[in-house]
Amino acid sequence: MTTASSDNDQDKKGEALKSQRFQMLADIAKELSGEVVFPTYFDAVLRLRKVLQDPEQSIGNIVHAVSVEPLISAKLLHLANSVAFNAGDRKVVDLKSAITRLGLNVVRTSALSIVMAQLMRAKGMAEFSEITQSLWEHSIQSAAAASIIARQVPRQNPDEAMLAGLIHDLGAFYMLYRATQYEELRHRPESIKYLIVQWHESIGVSLLNALGLPEEIVEATVDHDHIRPTPNPARNLSDIIYIANMLSGGHFEWLMQDKPESPAELSQIEEKYGHLRPEIEALTQEMRSSFA
Length: 292
Known about the structure:
With 292 residues, the chain is an all-alpha fold. 69% of the residues lie in helices and 0% in strands.
């Protein structure tokens, strides 16, 4: 039999949870209008991105900027010697050769991938390990799918598509990181999952703008989880990210859990792009081993 006292305790916990959810969203809105705070290593890669985006920088300056981040340096060397980038089986042992082989677009994407993987290991994130692992796997698959699909679309850059695919759900990672700072939310992954479903897209767009990502990439992430008629053919980066996201599962295990069947649009995407799955899986596996 439930006592009045325990009912009151439950009410208090429910009110505290609701209060902290509102507080977290309010704090995020405030932060996104000022200076975004991520863990130190995320700040480092954002500083690195500024160097990589500057066309006046020499390869020597770029190598120096990358070399001060040991984890990124090691991962880039590993990637440059992977099957995807070392078809001639010529091993590189220095950072300059690795960066030259990979190209700046791949270096930009790789650096961000590496810190996103590290973000999952940030203090307090263990409580959300199931969600973060699922999000990370989806992000890697979406990045690989976007890159492969972009190769089929005229005037689209596969490297840019890979970057957009990788960060299209950065808002969800950010929300999880911020949730670790609230006692009532830290131990309730299901409650945070609900908030992510409702808010991650709009928060993600604001976050990517605040971080200074190119407008085309930011625009491509808008409404990526909203079902719409299958682009046929895909014409731009927004179409590519939508298709890649849906082909990689999206969040439909969350969004559609109360629906008896998946929408017909998903079957259409599978019909048109399902044949690319072997290529997508091969690239996904390559990215998993390089960025883990």
